[in-house]
């Protein structure tokens, strides 16, 4: 009777040790995944950061846009636009942004402020005054996304090549 009890106890102890090792492996994998998630989040993979910061330039080189490829719903963010028209006497600059994008955000401010806004088909045209804008000074739009999802839109200056932008907006 004691021999079978001893072998049963040894088998139970061996299965408990094997179960404990499996649990430790699963625990270590979980720790590794959490560490990876934290590193990705710190680098901007889940929002603002160096992994998601983008700069796009139009084919003709007249327009440059800085934005984040991954953004969060309701989080304050900004879009920076640089234009070079090559005309040092230009007193105005028109920036056209896809209406689909403007309809899905809440614009908080522009710097500098546009003097005029007009609807032209599927674009909204913002008119800015100042010769510095036509020669490389940036326009900054501070805004918040209203909803999450994939955003694809274009920004262009009057008569120039557009910059196509894709963003993922997380909840």
The helix/strand series, from N terminus to C terminus, equals: HEEEEEHEEEHEEE
Tell me how many strands there are: 11
Tally of contiguous helical segments? 3
Approximate strand percentage: 35-45%
Rg over alpha carbons: 27 Å
Q: In the CATH classification, which architecture of the largest domain applies?
A: Sandwich
Any idea of the CATH topology of the largest domain?
Immunoglobulin-like
Architecture overview:
The protein is an alpha+beta fold and 171 residues long. It has 2 domains: 1-43; 53-170, Sandwich (Immunoglobulin-like), CATH 2.60.40.1510. It contains 3 helices and 11 strands. The strands form 2 sheets. Strands 3-11-10-5-8-7 form a 6-stranded mixed sheet. Strands 1-2-4-9-6 form a 5-stranded antiparallel sheet. β1 and β2 form a beta hairpin. The longest helix is centred in the N-terminal third of the chain and has 42 residues, at 2-43.
In short:
It is built from three helices and eleven strands.
Topology of helices and strands:
Layout: H1 2-43, E1 53-57, E2 63-68, E3 70-72, E4 77-84, E5 92-98, H2 99-103, E6 105-111, E7 116-120, E8 123-129, H3 131-134, E9 135-145, E10 149-157, E11 163-170
Provide key terms for this protein:
3 helices, 11 strands, five-stranded antiparallel β-sheet, alpha+beta, 171 residues, six-stranded mixed β-sheet, Immunoglobulin-like, 30% helix, single chain
